[in-house]
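go over this chain:
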Amino acid sequence: MASRLHQKVALKDGKTQCKKMLVMLNSPMGRIEISGCGTGVHEIQFKENALSQNSTKEALVTCEVCEGPEEMTEPLKQCTAWLQAYFCEPWMTEKLPMPPFHHPVFEQDSFTRQVLWTLLRDVKFGEAVSYKQLADLAGNSKAARAVGGAMRSNPVPIIIPCHRVICSSGQTGNYGGGTHLKEWLLSHEKLQKEKLAY
């Protein structure tokens, strides 16, 4: 178990090594694995899906650490707290520190990085934007397909909310965890936003 929770990761450019740590959360969507090091969060991955393809009932809204090291790095603590707030008390996410990210996609000056930062900054909880609208926001109105590629490259879904990017027709479009997870996330945000309006 310890070898799975702590791994050394050499970067491609050979600059530094990370001591990678893994944390597993039980969420309303299923198990979520967070990987990261002392510098930042590497990835968020959906491991086990708790939602059936046709699930209409509201899942239990809890999010707890079920596996992980006794001592977490600060970025992993921040990411875990952020995800717990997202599922249980979404209004708190704006008050929590955003965990730093440590992934090659954020270390290169690229359209993908620009799109992901634009999405994080401009598309708020409970909102949705089309691929074309996001391309416009990122400064290249003709790059809707490239926005789709950027969404597929997103290493930290939910925090960088690629689930909020939908087709111009209003259809949800594809999602790395499956369209039913994307629909659940959009529905969760809509429901929580309506609760806050009362």
Residues 1-7 have pLDDT under 50 and may be disordered. Residues 52 and 171 are 19 Å apart (CA to CA).
